[in-house]
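Researcher: Please translate sequence to C-alpha cells.
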Amino acid sequence: MKKAFELTFSNGSTARAIQVDREADLSAALHELEFHRSFRTLVLVGGAGGLGKAELDSLRPLFIEVLAPLAATLGAAVVDGGTDAGVMRLMGQARAETNATFALVGVVAIGMVTLPDTQLPALDTALLESHHTHFVLVPGSQWGDESPWLSRVAGTLAQGAPSVTVLVNGGKTAWQDVLQSVKARRPVIVVGGSGRTADLLAGALRGEIADERARELSASGLLRAVDLKASADTLTRTIEQSLLLNDLGA
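Model: Translation complete:
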C-alpha cells in the first residue's frame, strides 16, 4: 500500500492524500490518513459540472446553513467526489466560510483529476477542490469509476456508526451513487427541488410516473425526500433524524 502524502493548493490550503488500488487496503489507507476511530458520516452526491451559476447560487444556502453546520455539530465526516465543481465545490466553500473543522474527504478516480502543481495537466481532467482536508485516489479513467469507492470509503469511515447519503441535483453518475448507497443499506435523503436526478427521485417517492431506475430505487424503502424550499431547521432536522434513527438501528 502506498504512503499518504501532502497536497498543497495555490491558495495555501493543504490536504492529506493517499492512493488505494485494492478494496482490501482501504481500512489501512484511512488509518494512514490518521482516521483512527469511527465517524458519523454524511455522504454528499449530486450535480457537478452540469450546474450553472444560478443553480449554484440557489443551492448555496443549503450548504452554508444546513450541511456544514450539521456536520460540525455532529462531529461527522463528509465524503464526496472531491472535484472543484458543483456540490463538491459548494461543500468545500461552506466548510471554509463557516470556519468548520469537520473532515471533508474527496474520493476521486486517479485518471480523471489533475493534482496541484502538475506541470502539464492531462486533457479532460478536473481540478481538486482546495478546501477538502483529505483525498482518497482510487482506480478509474472515467466518471463514475469512483462511485463504488465513495460508498466503500464512507462505510469504512463509519465502521458501524450512523451514515446517511444526501442527494442534491445530480446527473448520470448520481444514479450510480444512490444505487451504491442502497446496496450498502445506507439511508438516502433526496433534496427535491434541487433539479435533475433528485427531482425525478422525489417525484417517484410521491408516486408520480417515473422511469424504471427511479421506481426501483424508491421501492427500496431507504429513500426519503425533503424539499429544498423547506426551512433550514426542517432540512437540518430531517438529515439529523436519519443519522440518529440509523444510530438506533431503525
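Researcher: Any highlights?
Model: Residues 53-74 form the longest helix (22 residues).
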